[in-house]
Amino acid sequence: MDKSWMHSDRRSKAYEFGVEAFLNFAVENLLTTTHIRCPCVKCVNLKLFGVGIIRDHVYFNGIDQSYKNWTFHGEPWEATTNASRNVEEDDGHSRYSFVSEEIDMDDNDFGDFGSDPYEFANVIGDGDQPVYPGCRKCTKLSALVKLYNLKAKHGMSDVCFTELLILQGDLLPEGNTIPTSMYEAKKTLCALGLSYEKMHACPNDCILYKKEYEDSTNCPTCGISRWKEGKDSILKEGVPAKVVWYFPPIPRFKRMFQSHETAKSLTWHAARKSIDGQMSHPADSPSWKLLDDKWPEFGNEPRNLRLALSSDGFNPHSSLSSRYSCWPVILVTYNLPPWLCMKRKFMMLTLLIFGPKQPGNDIDVYLEPLIDDLKSLWVGIRGVYDAHNGEYFTLRAALMWTINDFPTYGNLSGCVVKGYKACPICGDDTPSHRLKNGHKICYIGHRKWLPINHPYRRHRAAFNGKLEYGIPPEPLTGEEVLHMVENVDRVCWKKKSIFFDLEYWKYLPVRHALDVMHIEKNVCDSIIGTLLEIPGKNKDGIAARLDLLNMGGQN
């Protein structure tokens, strides 16, 4: 195919015809118009867009002229001698162990090399090439990873990092291979598999501009523009008003099995035995056993993954902006032993939802790409290589539950978590009471969870002046919750959670778990603050005494 147009003037007809021929070639080979790597000089095949946006980028930014073999867009790759070389040394350890040491990740957490042989050949070459002639201590790849680690650790800008690379190149002997710009460094590091999808979102959290909305410029729900509005109230076309970063988990799951040690650890749960009959690992939980019993073809394969999802908001600007809220979404793999599954390198960041405001109940909009991947994982991902057993297998995974604080629980589950019906167990029968002096709602039916003969059930003065004879209600099953949320007359539910799109979700006995840290900290702060009469933390005030008197309790 003629590629001479790549060097033509962007205003010429040759360039115009070449761009259209390239886009047609990509669509015919990739069979998609919405998820194509952009070859412009800024994106350098790192980002996925639709055909319309790629056309604009190639015209405005120009095409990367070093992209001579269109392997990302369906052109056959011609094997090189480097690609046939073995990735691992004779001792069984990856030659790229310095990468894991530098940024605290698994040996194979940086790329599914087998899926992209062209990049694999480049990585092999950079891993063998000394940083300057005669250097035996450092290669081009190891030097670049260490420098990039400094950039991330100390928050260097791209301009600062480029100047550092130039200075480093001037200090090293002639013939050194240090890149001279952030652009060149990014092209090398992209081969390590640090891929992501940068998705545009409606500022009002209505939609993601993907699938059928890929080329839309206005939100079909609220009508607001996709583009950011400048200080002069003029829209900056091409600059999104809100961005969501998605880090696909499937390639990283594949890479976990490409590491011999990690692949072995992922089946640790199958060999363990519960000696005392207590629940010491999620493998002892009813949810784990239900997946094994209801879907035996899933449970019989110990390599199938059991996952948990956690999310919460934080302020990345510390005290500089108290109103900004950023929401990461993290996956945890329970197949690993307890001493590994909560390690930082195995806690998988999948979504980063930027503010300035929190997504609230609209968080389902942002979870859509992750749920799509979880659906694919439930069906099965074929051709995953297990380095421990030396074989290919079909990888499946199931999300067991979410872990979060109580407000986030309401956002993810769709349950009401404030007001008179805020108890997710009692629902419409929540025993609530508004305090006249404290101006808050209290929930006074907690004694019904005590044993039937517990003395606190007969205490009047210490509580609300009444005896407690009630029995605790049974938690709703997933099928009961699904029936309620599909009913328009629901009272305690705000929406149908997107997690019900997962085939197995309604059958799980525990779908959402509360973070113990938040509960323990808040309760401990209240008790200690009251006992020590700490200003601002003391709950024993005049309003509390008056409210207790009004309820018939002891003052």
From TrEMBL:
Identify the residues that the record assigns to the Transposase-associated domain, covering every copy: 3-75
The entry's protein name is Transposase-associated domain-containing protein
> Where are the coiled-coil regions?
none
InterPro entries, per the entry = Transpos_assoc, Transposase_21
**Which residues are listed as membrane-spanning?**
none
